[in-house]
Design a protein that fits this description.
By secondary structure, this protein is of the alpha/beta class. 50% of the residues lie in helices and 12% in strands. The chain has a 6-stranded parallel β-sheet, sandwiched between helices.
Amino acid sequence: MNLKGFIFDLDGTLINSLPVVRTSFNTTLLKFSGRVYADKELSALFGPSEDGIFKKLFPELWSEVLQFYLNEYDRIHVHYAKPFPGIVAALTLLQERKMKLALVSGKGSGSMEISLKHSGLKQFFELIITGSEHQASKPEHIKQVLALWNFSPEEVVYIGDIAYDVQAAKEVGVLPLSALWAETVQTQKVLAMNPAYAFNNVESFIEWIIKMVK
């Protein structure tokens, strides 16, 4: 296996930000719609970036809604600022082994900037690609990274924490890895997609890097 690049998801993979996302959405939707969204309703909204979600729900107010959301996201994120334990060590190890590193996330550019500010992870990534306002678009964005790097799919890894991340990686042909260390992970759904490797903790991911990345 001749790996040259690693592409990461952000929420639930590098940082424990999914509670921030859900809390910020709940507060924002309650303020602007006047009701509480059930968990399934909220999950059904995800796919497009935040601006896409708010444009659909609040066509006349979406810019104001987005700004309120980002303010909430920034305020709450302080309490979830640090990466998962071991993540900085893993990224440092990959850099030491001359791997190219990129971020491909479904979140919008505003919330991405906030998360990178609070987590201190921006320094590790030469490419950062955020989500589309129209739909979930990770396969296209992974392909974009491959083109910019001029790497073939089999030379690159994509690691994320949800079933869709495995699906997106397989669609493009990159190696699908699954991060199962977040409290929010739906392990059975992820494993049902048959990732090439799945890791219950960051330590086992680091051990895999030591073994597989030369």
